[in-house]
Amino acid sequence: MTTDPSPDWYTHFFTELPNEFWRRLTPEAATAAEVGFVERHLGLAPGSRVLDVPCGSGRHSMALAARGYRVSGVDISAEAVDHARRAAAEAGLTVDLTVADMRDLPRDGEFDAVVCLGNSFGYLDPTSTRQFARSLAGAVRPGGGLVIDCGTAAESVLPSFDPSPRTLDAGGITVTATNSYDAEGSRLITRYHFADGTRELEVAAVHHVYTSAHLGEVLTEAGFTDITRYAGTDDQPYALGERRLLLTARRGTS
């Protein structure tokens, strides 16, 4: 019998082998396009304070810092944050990096913008997702901007759902991923097998699948306004069957 992943799976999933796979998989051009999207839609002024959460291994944090922004990153993976600190130091960049749960954010409105990139918004159950949205709103100043990246919105996942195993290779690390869908809990469950020739690891991830409308409601309840949906960094509008949803918003001023 296959064991159901724990609700807090993300607290122990992101260890060295999975993190290194994603570091090798993502091209620099993709990071540049995502940071360009953030700059374009949030209208960041020089020296703006930006919070990257969860920041993972710091690819967006460092790209933003390299463009002159004052960046803080938060992630629950100590391995990822340690890697980001080393990479930032080697690049001569100043980034404030903290190991913490993404719901545990400063709530003094000190940031001009908050970004949640890399498809992590669906990690949490509905109650915790609302808590996370409130934390994002508390971290950003009134009128400040928000960008959320979601690859598991219902309109993206369900039209083309495929339970067949998929295999990817990134710099000598191979991963086989197999999806299943929990219709009762509206959860996408992905079981991974990582291997690099000397190490193997089997782990599972869970993404809670929310409709585009529900995500908008969660952000509105948290105090965000001007919510806009895009299908990617090329600014095309989001529609049924698009593989990715990027949401932009502003924290309300009232």
UniProtKB/TrEMBL annotation:
Classification via CDD domains: AdoMet_MTases
Record-linked Gene3D superfamilies: S-adenosyl-L-methionine-dependent methyltransferases, Vaccinia Virus protein VP39
Pfam families (UniProt xref): Methyltransf_25
GO aspect biological process, one term: methylation
GO molecular function: methyltransferase activity
Transmembrane segments: none
InterPro entries given in the database record: Methyltransf_25, SAM-dependent_MTases_sf
Domain of life: Bacteria
Methyltransferase domain segment(s): 50-144
Keywords, in A-Z order: Methyltransferase, S-adenosyl-L-methionine, Transferase
Xref: PANTHER family: METHYLTRANSFERASE, UBIQUINONE BIOSYNTHESIS O-METHYLTRANSFERASE, MITOCHONDRIAL
Protein name, per record: Methyltransferase domain-containing protein
